[in-house]
Amino acid sequence: MSALNQKTLKQKIKFEGIGLHTGKEVSMMILPSQPNSGIIFKRTDLKNNNIVLPNVYNVSNANLCTTISNEYGTSISTIEHLMGAFYGLGIDNAMVEINSQEVPIMDGSAKNFVEKFSEVGFEISKVPIKLIKITNKVNLEEGQKYISFEKSNVSLEIDFEIKYSNPLIGIQKNKINVYENNLTDIYNSRTFCLYEDVEKLRKNGLAKGGNLNNAIVVKDKEILNRECLRNDLEFVNHKILDCMGDLYLSGYKIIGSIKCSQGGHSLTNKLLRKLFADKNNYTIFEIKEKSLPHTFIDKSILKSIA
Q1: What domains can be seen in the chain, in order of their start residue?
Q2: Global confidence as pTM
Q3: How is residue 154 annotated by DSSP?
Q4: Strand locations in 11-155, DSSP E?
Q5: Most C-beta atoms within 10 A of its C-beta, which of 51, 64, 115, 170?
Q6: Is 265 a catalytic residue?
Q7: Is residue 102 left, alpha or beta, with left meaning phi > 0 and alpha meaning psi from -120 to 50?
Q8: Which of 21, 238, 265, 294 is labelled catalytic?
């Protein structure tokens, strides 16, 4: 993360596709936005009460995707890949205008978003970014699922593990440094499901727009897609992408270390709610310099605004 001032896009970008779960055609326009406005979603198919803010407490459903809603019941679902792209590229402010209730799934990853954002470029403001620094360990367990936040002096580390009985997926682990590593494999990793779960999902009114062009489908030891895996850890890397997108509902970039085993959207949201429930767990900082030293958090260049 080289720029310490708030960033938006240089120009608007249009995306068109289908919703993974609704199966509906959707058109989405992402426009540049002013500093300190944050990420805002606007349902253009609705005339009233159509603004939905992506924050921790607006998550209304976390079953298989992240859905946010406002106080009037207006919702936007499957926001995690787009939010992951915003987070990884350091986009602080943007207006997302969308004419349906679900973000288009594109190819099942954040690849299309990242490529388009990088193509149009970014506008850097003179307003400094803010960071959340984890100060106390916070953790949650639900059966075999586990997630925790701990201190980190320099970055955001995500250490993620998945465990599947399917022999092709099995146990996968990966650990990344969000602000220093090349995130191409994370952005390019697609959503996935087991073949035996497809019919169940559709009976429950989900995955209506899912197909082999926007999701990896695994049957026993075989991938049914024509395209092979994009990287050796694509399954766990997609979970890391989801995690990044869900973490951005904090509203800020985070300095800390997150460790997760067999978690997902719901567990990440519960961890963030537990984190923010006690102000002793975190501190919010405003960066005052124009460049960031490799030792990321040096209190001589930070002004606490907590």
Answers
A1: 5-127 (3.30.230.20), 131-304 (3.30.1700.10)
A2: 0.93
A3: S
A4: 13-18, 25-32, 39-43, 51-52, 59-61, 67-69, 75-77, 94-98, 122-128, 130-134, 138-142, 145-150
A5: 64
A6: yes
A7: beta
A8: 265
